[in-house]
Amino acid sequence: MDILIVLGAIVLLVLLIGVFKINAFLSFLFVSVVAGIFLGIPLDKITQSVEKGIGDILGGNVVIIIAGAMLGKLIADTGAAQQVATSIVNKTGIKKVHWGVAAVGFIVGIPLFYNTGFVLLVPLIFSMVYQYKLPAVATGISMLAALSVAHGFLPPHPSPAALVSQFHADLGKTLLYGIVVAIPAIVLAGPVFSRFLLKIPSAPLEAFRPQPMARENLPSPFSSFFVALLPVGLFALMAVLPFVTGDKHAPLLSFLSQPSIVMLIALTAGTWILGIKRGKRLPAVMNIYAEAVKEVAMILLIIGGAGGLKQVLTDSGVSNHIATLLQETHLSPLFLGWLSAAIIRAAVGSATVAGFTAAGIIAPLIAQTHTDPNLMVLSIGAGSLMFSHVNDGGFWMFKEYFNVSIKDTLRSWSIMEIIVSVTGLIGVFILNIFIH
Question: Which sequence ranges are marked TM in the entry (predicted)?
Fold first, then answer.
């Protein structure tokens, strides 16, 4: 009976978000309360469960996500992202432009949230399309594949960062594993797949023609790349240093390796290098950061709401019951995590909602099966990207920006997301062989 209640809660969540268009945070709160009632949690304890879940999941992620949003907004508004894009494409040349824009999408996509990266970089793609008469869809899909992979696989993006906290994974290891899995996913879904899209007709709208910054106003290539890649470099460094020094429990290293400290260091460096050093007044930089918080506020609320539902499932004991049943299926826990997220993604459309809903179901299975939590983050992240279609905002952003038909959106954008998801799952399985 408990399983039917959980399935009913997921269906209700899908209906509220996908059909009735209720705000995702409110939907999570409502479903959490309803699920708590039907699962037999005492009425005076339900709100305590929901509030505890919200507090637990946000407590370890607010700094990471907010600092990541601020850094990404700084990189976008100061022209550093444009400098990265221009530098890479100039190096690769037009003949290898698909590889160049994929690299741009990956590097810029690490600190930038997906929607910000999309709105910022697609006009740069269009500038090349207009200037060099390139096929718009084939050129753009390489960059968007990279942006999508970064969004689903890599901290400090909201879903993977929060799953790291929820599964008690190691953020540095998850990032390193994620990069290993990301590269083949980007190659296959981007430059390789784009070869099959050369004849898709597309007439990007004039409204999306870019108005780039003048070259003399851009930060230097070194500064742009340094700040964009600094979080990755710091996470990697802190993951490797304990093995180099031979002291895995040194207080200073433990302090510096905390994700929130890493992000604060990266944000401080970015504030100086891209802001104050280049003549921006500190209040102007703070205004950029304030705008970044507005952009990410709803994402934080959705994460909190998902945490509330997860806690209700945990406190009712149904999560352990589901984990036991899933374990008896004799399917790989990593595959089950991917499949759960993929099903919810197809139903709801939101990768973030899919990731957190699947995580609440799968979390107890990790401890019972001794599954590597870092790989489970990546597996669920890959599943959360599976099959974007008409209920996903990203689907419509692609369609409208590139001005293509629904049919062509399905055979370009949607197939790209499927390739990313499946390749990510395969990469996780291969990594699992070597790690264990």
Answer: 28-46, 58-76, 96-122, 134-154, 174-198, 218-244, 256-275, 296-314, 334-363, 375-398, 418-435
Query: For residue 20, what is the DSSP state?
Result: S
Nearest to 380 by CA among 335, 320, 415: 335
Q: Residue 138 is encoded by which pair of tokens?
A: 């084939």
Task: Tell me if 327 is assigned to some domain.
Answer: yes
Using CA atoms, how far apart are residues 362 and 356, in angstroms rounded to an integer? 10
Q: Cα separation of 197 and 416, whole Å? A: 11
Cα separation, 383 vs 338, whole angstroms? 4
Total number of domains in the chain? 1
Please report the pLDDT score of residue 187 as a whole number: 96
Q: Helices (DSSP H) in 188-279: which residue ranges?
A: 193-194, 221-245, 251-256, 259-270
Say if 18 falls within a structural domain. Answer: no
Residue segments in the chain with a per-residue pLDDT below the cut of 70: 60, 116, 120, 123, 127, 131, 205-212, 243, 246-249, 319, 322-323, 326-327, 348, 391
Amino acid 206: pLDDT: 60
pLDDT per residue as tens digits for the range 318-362: 767 766 776 677 788 999 999 988 888 887 677 877 888 888 888
Closest among 155, 183, 189, 187 to 374, alpha carbons compared: 155
User: Is residue 404 domain-resident?
Assistant: yes
Interacting residues of 203 by C-beta distance below 8 A, sequence separation 6+: 136, 403
User: Mind listing the pLDDT tens digit for each residue in 120-161?
Assistant: 677 677 767 776 788 889 999 999 999 999 888 887 777 888
Please give the structure tokens belonging to residue 351: 């990768």
Nearby residues of 231 by Cβ (< 8 Å), 6 or more positions away: 68, 71, 110, 111, 156, 262, 263, 266
Alpha-carbon distance of 310 to 307, in angstroms, equals: 5
Is residue 156 reached through a cis peptide bond, with omega within 30 degrees of 0 on the bond before it? yes
Residues spanned by the domain of 163: 55-435
Two structure tokens written together for 306: 């998902």
User: How far apart (Å, rounded) are the C-alpha atoms in residues 30 and 25?
Assistant: 9
